[in-house]
Automatic annotation (TrEMBL):
Alpha-carbonic anhydrase domain sequence ranges: 16-88
PROSITE patterns, A to Z: ALPHA_CA_2
Stated name of the protein: Carbonic anhydrase Xa
Cross-referenced InterPro entries: CA_dom (IPR001148), CA_dom_sf (IPR036398)
SUPFAM superfamilies: Carbonic anhydrase
Transmembrane segments: none
Record organism: Neogobius melanostomus (round goby)
Protein origin, superkingdom: Eukaryota
Gene3D superfamilies found in the cross-reference section: Alpha carbonic anhydrase
């Protein structure tokens, strides 16, 4: 698992849109199936289930040797994942 923090490049108008629930604090928020309709550059988001348009700038990444291992609490449920890359 790769975790990183980046400065968003998108306009502030999009900041509140990235949620996986249709209602956040009483307001409708487009879920992944709608993200691809908002911006054609995010069209792959319409295909998956829990995806968001993330632009990881590897030139801005910094390795932190002091990070502790991630602990996931899944409530006893088994969790599986798959990863794929699309290279252009």
């Amino acid at each position: 698992i790769l975790l990183c923090s980046t400065q968003p490049n998108s306009p502030k108008i999009h900041e509140g849109w990235w949620a996986y629930k249709e209602v956040v604090q009483g307001s409708f928020v487009p879920v992944p199936s709608f993200w691809g309709l908002v911006n054609s550059a995010w069209n792959l988001c319409s295909v998956g289930k829990r995806q968001s348009p993330v632009n990881i700038e590897t030139s801005h990444m910094i390795f932190d040797p002091f990070l502790k291992p991630i602990k996931l609490n899944t409530g006893g449920r088994k969790v599986g994942t798959s990863v794929s890359q699309v290279l252009q």
